[in-house]
Amino acid sequence: MNDLAINQHGKSHINGSANQTENVKSAPVLVKFSSLDTARKVFAAKSKLAKSGVFVLENLTKKRRDLLNAARSTFGPRSMTKEIETIISEESSIMTMPAPGPILNAPEHTLTAPEHDLTAPKPTLTAPELTLTDPKPTLTVAEPTLTAPGQTLTAPGTHLASLIAPEDDSRNPSMTLAISKDVKGKKPRNFFTICPFCRRSFYKLDKHFLAKKGSCSKNTNGEFWSVKEAKEMHELAKDELAERSQNKTYFLASQVSSLVEETKTLHGPSTSALPQQSPPIVETDFFSREQLSLSSQIRRRRVSEESDPEDVVDSDEGGSLYAPEIPEDESSEEEEEKSELRSEYFKKEWNWTSDIRKKMQKHGLYDVYTKNVKTEEEAKKMAKGIELMKKFEKWSAECGERSSRKFRNPFGCAQKIVYFILEGTKYNWLNFHSAERVELFFSKLAECGMKGSSRNKYAQGYSRFVKYITSRGSDAPPELNIALVNSVMSAVSFLDRKQKSLATAEMRHRELQRTFNPNSFTIDDYRNLKAGVEKFMAPVITRLTRNRLVEEDHTNITAYICFLVSFMYGHRPGVPENMTVTEFLNRHYVEEQKMFVILVEKHKTASIKSAGVALSEPEEVIFRKYLSFVRPALVKPDLPEPARAEEILKKMSEKRGIGADLTEALTEASLQMAIRRLGYQDTVPSLEEVQQTYRRFRIPKLFPSEPLVDDYLTQCVLNQSWLGMTVAQSLNKGAGQGVYATIPFYKNQVVVEIHGKRMATIEANRLFRSLLGEDDGSNYFLTVDQDVTIDAREEACACHPHQQCFGRLVNHKANEDGPNLKSKALVVDGLKRPFLVATRDITAGEELCFDYGVRPGQFNEGYEQMFLLPEKSRKRKRSARDQQG
Ligand SMILES: C[S@@+](CC[C@H](N)C(=O)[O-])C[C@H]1O[C@@H](n2cnc3c(N)ncnc32)[C@H](O)[C@@H]1O
């Protein structure tokens, strides 16, 4: 009260006489203020009077009290609150808005109730009143008296203070942007409304306007609307809004924006100052302003050349890059048209996507695909995963991982450590650049049982792009040399070995020593690589901005997207591949970091948490381009009917020379796996496309003269996923099961590992001797060298409980034709392991076999393994035994 000058008070008087009895309130003091501002100040400061025994209330006229009561009975008592001059509903508000100074020179006070006379003249102002009483005074802010019938909708923002109809329109992507992200999946309750002036979204737009003294006239560039413009805007919208208000037509945020769009159209160039929704592009050395400017000029020319709007969508959709604003010649009409086309395009893709979903659902594929169907085993696995994940999160926090809440843990995966080791200083809140921390982190990880569930996956992204570029020979920039790639790969495989070597502390220590060796991959290597990639991409980006992509650019851009996400942000390549259009549309911009954050929900087979990708502005542009132009061009729009799928399967088996009886390798599951590997989620490819991938994955490109130890083999070993074989009844009499080839193998190709428990040879020999005589034990031991022997007696090994280890089931053969496989020890992933290698070309359908290297009577006198004998002597022995027996 002390802050108020005496002349800011109007008349004041005590209403009635004070009652002296204790329980009865003192008579209120009514105070009138000279201006609404003063009244507001007092009202805003009323909380300071808490516990003082003084209360400040707004003194409503009967008319306003009745309106408030009516509103409360319509919308519920709790949903309606009241502030000075304003009645607010919880969902949004019905309110009166004082007009900005230049339009009206006095505040006016009405509700947007239909009974108001909208044609009334301007009201005359009377100052509000305040009431003071003593000794227990009540301060009451009186409602300013309206001396004219209610006038409404005089302020530019008033029309937005309408109720937002609680319709679930979250399926419409353009709508999703306009309403609260919280409503996704839930019953919508709170909606955000877009302010037509600053284009920011607000839960309570009226409050935003109040804060801006009745009109938000500032755009995001910090420029103010001229008074004239604001007035014109208001005038334009007035009639329309008055009508809607009269009819109690409440509109959605999108309608509000369209209204503003209408206004804009009527306004012409003066509204070009409307802010863009997106931030301005940031210049980088590979994405220059000149390029963008050029692209925007080209686009403009193209748009004007194109007469058919459909064609414009096709040819220009790729041109959705943010171009620097050139207000002089970029007409707002053209801009509008473009933005319409863009949203039209997204709508198309959205419809297409949901169509595909429906089709998949119809064929029962969707549930399998999205893992909605949980067998008991799957559910158990998932529960275990979640448990581990929680433990893991706790540990990682202990290890110093401080992920920002704002990014919802975008850097939460172990793989990201590689990045932080290299660029640790940049993201210092993550503190992962010390060797000790990494060691601690990994040991904790091991305690959580995380021994590389996703091992090698992260390496894919790195290697895919780097190898791709280096394989381009003369095209590749000099920065990308093989030595560099090798050093990248060694840094990348650090994690893999790390995860594996968690078993022993000594190995862990050795790995750390090696990885932090200054001669291994350095920060400079990393920078060089990045520079090389950017140099390589420069012409592609130029083509991209000019909409002159050549066919191979699709691959370039796809690979680059993988590179960006996996190399720069440490995610699996599955993240960009599985990113849905909706997820991209729901991206949010984080001012402080100048980053777009996108959350990708299903980024790996068993996604538990969303993966967050933080993209810089130019990167976001490339992503947009990728999603709107490149990815759709790479996929086919439909899934074939089941009958057609069968036909394709048959063709596939014929093409690959697989006998009809062995087609079971091509199960729906393997097809689904291939689809997943392609990485599409919204835009599921056709089976033909799967077929190509399937072939690529399974048929080696090389015909080596020596068994080849490459990434592919390492991956097979680590995952124990062996392709091109199946288990069926053996052709050898009494042999039980055997392994058959389902694809051709080439001479010297590594076919499978004999996988099992590794043990010391001395120990194995002892065990082996104790088992002699038991046919079902002794033949599952395979000696690698003097130190190591594999015990493959267990059906499933401890490290791959869910995998079929084919190697242990391959039968013996030592006759004249010779076996089609031979055993060979190779070092893969740092360990010497026994493999079966093709001795000649093997055709699909052959039973796989190798010489066990043991001969009858080799071990104990009197102990003979019948199956080792030639068929003739076996028969003889059998009949001799029968006669004896
Ligand atoms: C390593 S296992 C091979 C998988 C085995 N067939 C199964 O069904 O589990 C070795 C055992 O297979 C059988 N076996 C392997 N080669 C055989 C052959 N050529 N003839 C008969 N039996 C054979 C013997 O019983 C031998 O002990």
Automatic annotation (TrEMBL):
Q: Where are the transmembrane segments?
A: none
The biased composition feature labelled Acidic residues covers 306-317, 326-338
Cite the SET domain residue spans from the record.
723-853
The Swiss-Prot or TrEMBL record annotates one GO molecular function as: S-adenosylmethionine-dependent methyltransferase activity
- InterPro entries linked to this entry: SET_dom, SET_dom_sf
- The domain of life is Eukaryota
Q: Where is this region: Disordered?
A: 1-20, 298-340
Q: What is the protein's given name?
A: SET domain-containing protein
